[in-house]
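Quick bug: GNAT family N-acetyltransferase output formatted oddly.
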Amino acid sequence: MLMPEMETERLIIRSTREADGPDCLSLWLDEEVGRYLADPPREKASEKYLNFAVGIENSTSWYPMVMIHKESGEFLGTCSVVPREDGACWDFGYCIRQKYWRQGYGTETLRRLIRQGVENGVRSFTADVAVENAGSNTLLQKLGFRIWKSGSTFQKSGTDIIYPEYTYRLDLPQTNIL
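Here's what came back:
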C-alpha cells in the first residue's frame, strides 16, 4: 500500500519503490545493521527474499517506506507500518544505516509516523524489539512506549539464532510526544 510522502526537519519519508530494493537489501543484509532483524544473513537470503521489491507498490497488507536525507538525497533507512486491530493500531518496523545511528533520525521518523497515524485516527502503536537491542529499546522508551508483552522470541531467518523480544506499545492520548 502507498503512504503519502511525509517530511520532517531532515528527512523525506516515502513509499518504497521497486528501484529501492538494492538499497533496502544492502541495509538489512549488513551484518551489524541487520543483527537484530529477523531477516536472513546475506549468504542465506533466498531468491524470493532478494526480489522482495518486485511489485512492492501493489502490497496490500503493509506500508513499506524509505527514509531519504533531505540535504544529501542519501538513502538513510527503511521503516514500515503494518495496520493491526482493524486499523486502530499500527505496528512499526525501522532500520537505519549505521553511520546515522544515535543522531535522532529514529526519533524523528517514529514521531512523524505517529503523527500520520493520529491524523488517520490511530491511537495505538506497537513495535517488536530484540531484548538485546539497546538502541531500539532506548528509542521506544524515550518516545513513551512501554513494554506491553515479554517472554516471546523470534528466529533470525536461515539461522539457529533465537532472540528474546519485547513488544512495546504506545496508547494515545496519554502522552504528548508530537
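Actually, after a second look the formatting is fine. The chain has a mean pLDDT of 94. Closing.
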